Automatic annotation (TrEMBL):
UniProt keyword annotations, A-Z: GTP-binding, Hydrolase, Nucleotide-binding
One Pfam family matching this protein: MMR_HSR1
Organism (species): Viridothelium virens (Speckled blister lichen)
The protein's name in its UniProt record: P-loop containing nucleoside triphosphate hydrolase protein
NCBIfam families: small_GTP
Domain spans labelled OBG-type G: 64-290
One of the GO biological process terms: positive regulation of cellular response to amino acid starvation
Keyword hit for Glycoprotein: no
Source domain of life: Eukaryota
């Protein structure tokens, strides 16, 4: 019986034979959708060698996690030890690291977890080595450092990108601006605000047909490809993760070669061994993680700039802020007083749903209905309310 991998190969060769033209676009759309379904089958944990596994699942700590992906011996563990002080075995032979090794960096007051991972090899996504477990961990990270050896950076870069793409990871990309609303009847209706140069209605219908979606409204607001459409249908299996290419071992190349490496987008040339340029890597990491620091301020006092509450841009409302300090604060919450970029007036009273900006200052106010108005201050060190003062 043909395995899933055999079926994938068969479809890929059929696609290579089929030239895209008006007559074949339905067929090509169908093949691409079939391929995406088979690839998903291959990656579900029930099939052999899926994600997880001993030594790979580590407790997540901090506000965000960064996974290190790369071929063996490119210097991932050396970088880990350099950044975190957490020793991760590094050696001149390949596959020195065999499990996930966690460490922590505190940057701009944010605790960021670093995950040193074993080296992967070409074919990792198809089950070679422990590649699937490794990429499965990377898929749950907020940022990936693709660590490359500068001596073979460009070829390795392409191979690793293909491995991650094949696992449903979309690198430095936003989800496509396509909205699919399934309906009970009425067939497929397509509206597009952008000029579609890569996909026609036949292809879209073929993909929907392959996914057994008979009726839906599809609103396309970008110059989408078939792959974009499939990514939206397969949204549950896709992760959109920012990536920085850490081009390691620059101590082994000339200044002229370094100049060329600087042109690669999203790249940061470094030497883990000598600690060269790792501060720029940290700056780039900070920008990509898109974190927001919110300082607490007791009434009548200066804000505490030493230990901000750090939130992710996807969860940065006043409610998230309160929950990050103590779960009970939301129950007692009445209004927050905010200074900073997120408000028009300085300060301004805002509710739980207000989105905070980086470096905002929040003076939070809680009230108990039965007792006269009380103001709660809390300690961000112990995460407990500490002082209750009658107004
Ligand atoms: N010249 C130079 N060598 C480096 C640098 N960083 C690491 N190395 C060397 O590269 C070799 C491999 O380093 P590791 O940190 O073990 O590499 P790894 O990517 O963790 O390897 P695996 O765990 O096997 O996947 C070691 O001999 C390191 O000393 C660097 O910046 N410059
Ligand atoms: Mg290692």
């Amino acid at each position: 019986m043909a395995t899933t991998v055999d079926k994938i190969k068969e479809i890929e060769s059929e696609m290579a034979r089929t030239q895209k033209n008006k007559a074949t676009s339905f067929h090509l759309g169908q093949l691409k959708a079939k391929l995406a379904k088979l690839k998903r089958e291959l990656l579900t944990p029930s099939s052999s060698g899926g994600g997880g596994g001993a030594g790979f699942d580590v407790a997540r700590t901090g506000v965000a996690s960064v996974g290190f992906i790369g071929f063996p011996s490119v210097g991932k563990s050396t970088l880990m030890s350099r950044l975190t002080g957490q020793h991760s075995e590094a050696a001149a032979y390949e596959f020195t690291t065999l499990t996930t090794v966690p460490g922590q960096v505190v940057y701009n007051g944010a605790k960021i977890q670093m995950l040193d991972l074993p080296g992967i090899i070409q074919g990792a996504k198809d089950g070679k080595g422990r590649g699937r477990q490794v990429i499965a961990v990377a898929k749950t990270c907020h940022l990936i450092f693709i660590v490359l050896d500068v001596n073979k950076a460009l070829t390795d870069k392409r191979v690793i990108e293909t491995e991650l793409e094949g696992f449903g990871i979309r690198i430095n990309k936003e989800p496509p601006n396509i909205k699919i609303t399934k309906k009970d009847k009425g067939g497929i209706s397509i509206t597009s605000t952008a000029n579609l140069t890569h996909i026609d209605h036949d292809e879209i219908k073929a993909v929907m047909n392959e996914y057994r979606i008979a009726s839906a409204d599809i609103a396309i607001r970008c110059d989408a490809t078939v792959d974009d459409l499939i990514d939206v249908i397969e949204a549950k299996n896709r992760s959109y993760i920012p990536v920085i290419y850490a081009l390691n071992k620059i101590d082994a190349i000339s200044i002229e070669e370094l100049d060329i490496l600087y042109r690669i987008p999203h790249a940061c040339p470094i030497s883990s061994e000598h600690g060269w340029n790792v501060d720029e890597l940290m700056e780039q990491m900070w920008d990509k993680l898109n974190l927001r620091r919110v300082y607490t301020k007791p009434k009548g006092k200066l804000p505490d700039y030493s230990e901000p509450v750090v939130l992710r841009a996807t969860a940065c409302t006043v409610e998230d802020f309160c929950n990050a300090i103590h779960k009970t604060i939301v129950e007692q919450f009445r209004t927050a007083i905010v200074y900073g970029k997120s408000v028009k007036h300085q300060p301004q009273k805002v509710g739980l749903s207000h989105e905070l900006a980086d470096e905002d200052i929040s003076e939070s106010l809680a009230s108990f209905p039965r007792i006269h108005k009380l103001r709660i201050y809390w300690s961000i060190l112990t995460h407990e309310p500490v002082t209750i003062i009658k107004r």
